[in-house]
Amino acid sequence: MIQAVFFDFDGTLIDSMPAHVVAWEKILSEVGITLDDLYFQLNEGEKAEDTIARLLAENGVNYSPQEQEALIERKRALYRKTAPKGLIPEAAELVKELHRRNIACDIVTGSIRSNMDAVLSPKEFSLFRHIYTPAEYGKGKPAPDPYLTALERSGLTVFECMVLENAPLGVRSAKAAGIRTAAITTTLPPQYLAEADHIIHRFSDFLSLL
Description:
CATH topology of the largest domain: Rossmann fold
Strand order of the largest sheet: 3-2-1-4-5-6
Helix content: 40-55%
Strand content: 5-15%
Number of strands: 6
Structural class: alpha/beta
Distance between the termini: 7 Å
Largest sheet: 6 strands, parallel
């Protein structure tokens, strides 16, 4: 029986990807970098530090670690100005139903806590038992570290947990941790989510997988 569900945050629980994309595109355009339309949706979930280091290196932009961190902080500030507030209503209903079934809900995210504080209310935070941000784990998604950390701290087995994700890197992370994973098509069509054990189109469909 499932005892805990680990949720991704951006694009899964909140409709934040458009705001993230706009913020990334703005700061990257200043250093002459433009990307394919789905780049950030396909790479969503990894640590911002990994994203910026790779993109700068691939495009021959030589920035010091301090300059890279300054870019990231500017991106985060831009995001917080435009990010939508609150959980996706259907996602909130799913979390509440899981509570009614005595199933714990955790968040496992590549977002930092200050970004989350900008969009969720204390009441919304209270729906979740634990929140795992990059401060709590080692390597970011697609490495298994984020979900292994959540699993180990839960005290449960992989057979007692499930993951709900929306992006390929998050799916790979959860699968590498050995956890059964559902992917929801909130930000990408099914063909990009084929590595998941299940693909769903509505939050309510998740309940049939328990």
